[in-house]
Automatic annotation (TrEMBL):
Family designation: Belongs to the nucleotide pyrophosphatase/phosphodiesterase family.
Compartments where located: Cell membrane
Main location: membrane
Membrane topology: Single-pass type I membrane protein
Entry-linked InterPro entries: Alkaline_phosphatase_core_sf (IPR017850), Phosphodiest/P_Trfase (IPR002591)
Protein name: Bis(5'-adenosyl)-triphosphatase ENPP4
GO CC terms, sorted: plasma membrane
Gene designation per UniProt: ENPP4
Cofactors, names only: Zn(2+)
Range of residues in the leader sequence: 1-18
Alphabetical GO biological process terms: blood coagulation
Domain of life: Eukaryota
Length: 453
């Protein structure tokens, strides 16, 4: 008996050990191609990306956060928070209390980033895990005193190939293993600004290059044996819309520029009045029919863009395709930053890997939903956030989900079956219980004959 107990006990321990050595922690690579407008996917050819989607999932529209700019949206993806909550409220910011400035060229002060905890920090606090970043806004800043274990200082001149080489090397060779990694690329944003999204010829060329980079990424992951076990999300921060020299809003025509400081210009201008706020507001309010002017307290709730000191007392929101300028000509042919309800501002999301279904298409999610989904995949406890995990359940193999058309179909189908069955039962019952028509027993002539004579 003693021997049996010992054998059973040692068997249990071996079983547990066996399990843990085989179940490696899940890994996730998050890729952003800056400014990849959702409908590029419908309007251009992407053979490599379409292959990736065929074996994975596609979310056709990701509703991003207002303002639809690069730094704020990249930080929302990795924190699940609206801009007013994570504190990166624009690419250009000013904090009235500390008098600090932030810009895309001067973004290294942790002060700006510390209002939230990005997923690479949370991932690294888990035992035996590390994070890596081949550039992503904020990854070269010690946020809460933590950078990813492996990261590159931001430089737009570093090639995609070098970034990809670094990230795959870190994914393979690190100890503790890299379980969360980011990869960032500046296109098609840069070309979208330069040519405008309506320049089909140039955008065709640029988007073909992007597709080739995706082909390169998948090929490299396959060669290195990472493809089957690594979860890969390819997404973006925002879309792009066409601007025009005929759609300019010149603030200098409406107000003396010495009466305010301009913290951010277009298409959402952040205005810090130097004189009476109401006076500045009243002048700007009538400046253009193609621009909404809001006092901070009146910013529509749907923008989730109000409760932060870094949001200035007045903001101006240009209509789609309009550019706010100061006595200057059109600075760029394409831009983003506009209202996040515009579909031209939305990016897409595609994902592949053991956590995701194969060949599944989904209409839309919010960009803040990506964070709780990534935490789920990595087995991390998410920080409080504005995302909804339920919105992404249909993408994941380990979740039970049912979408609305399917649910309606199932309910209608079930009702039809029930009705048919009930009908059948009623018919059967009627048949069984119908009394036989009464008929007098026909006596034959010899029936009167006694049976026994
Ligand atoms: Zn961007």
């Amino acid at each position: 008996m003693k021997l049996l107990v010992i054998l059973l006990f040692s068997g249990l321990i071996t079983g547990c050990r066996g399990n843990s050595s085989h179940s490696l922690p899940p890994k996730l690579l998050l890729v952003s191609f800056d400014g990849f407008r959702a409908d590029y996917l419908q309007n251009y050819e992407f053979p490599h990306l379409q292959n990736f989607i065929k074996e994975g999932v596609l979310v056709e529209h990701v509703k991003n956060v207002f303002i639809t700019k690069t730094f704020p949206n990249h930080y929302s993806i990795v924190t699940g928070l609206y801009e007013e909550s994570h504190g990166i409220v624009a690419n250009s910011m000013y904090d009235v209390i500390t008098k600090k400035h932030f810009s895309d060229l001067d973004d290294k002060d942790p002060f700006w980033w510390n209002e939230a905890v990005p997923i690479w920090v949370t991932n690294q606090l888990q035992e035996n895990r590390s994070s890596a970043a081949a550039m992503w806004p904020g990854t070269d800043v010690p946020i809460h005193n933590t950078t990813p274990s492996y990261f590159m200082n931001y430089s737009s001149s570093v090639s995609f190939e070098e970034r990809l080489n670094n990230i795959t090397t870190w994914l393979i060779n690190s100890n503790p293993p890299v379980t969360f990694a980011t990869l960032y690329w500046e296109e098609p944003d840069a070309s979208g600004h330069k040519y405008g999204p309506e320049d089909k010829e140039n955008m065709y060329r640029v988007l073909k290059e992007i597709d080739d980079l995706i082909g390169e990424l998948v090929h490299k992951l396959k060669v290195l044996g990472l493809w089957e076990n690594l979860n890969v999300i390819i997404t973006s921060d925002h879309g792009m819309t066409q601007c025009s020299k005929d759609r300019l809003i010149n603030l200098d025509r409406c107000i003396d520029n010495s009466s305010y400081a301009l913290i951010d210009l277009t298409p959402v201008a952040a205005v810090l009045p130097k004189i009476n706020t109401t006076e500045v507001y009243n002048k700007l309010k009538v400046c253009s029919p193609h621009m909404n002017v809001y006092l901070k307290e009146d910013i529509p709730a749907r923008f989730h863009y109000q409760h932060n000191n870094r949001i200035q007392p007045i903001i101006l929101v240009a209509d789609e395709g309009w550019t706010i300028v100061l006595n200057k000509s059109l600075p760029k042919l394409g831009d983003h930053g506009y209202d996040n309800s515009l579909s031209s501002m939305h990016p897409f999301l595609a994902a592949h890997g053991p956590a995701f279904h194969k060949g599944y298409k989904h209409n839309t999610i919010n960009s803040v939903d990506i964070y709780p989904m990534m935490c789920h995949i990595l087995g991390l406890k998410p920080h409080p956030n504005n995302g909804t995990f339920g919105h992404t359940k249909c993408l994941l193999v380990d979740q039970w989900c049912i979408n609305l058309p399917e649910a309606v179909g199932i309910v209608i189908g079930a009702l039809l079956v029930l009705t048919t069955l009930t009908g059948l039962i009623i018919i059967m019952q009627n048949r069984l219980s119908v009394p036989r028509p009464f008929s007098r027993l026909q006596l034959q002539e010899d029936d009167d004959d006694p049976l026994i004579e």
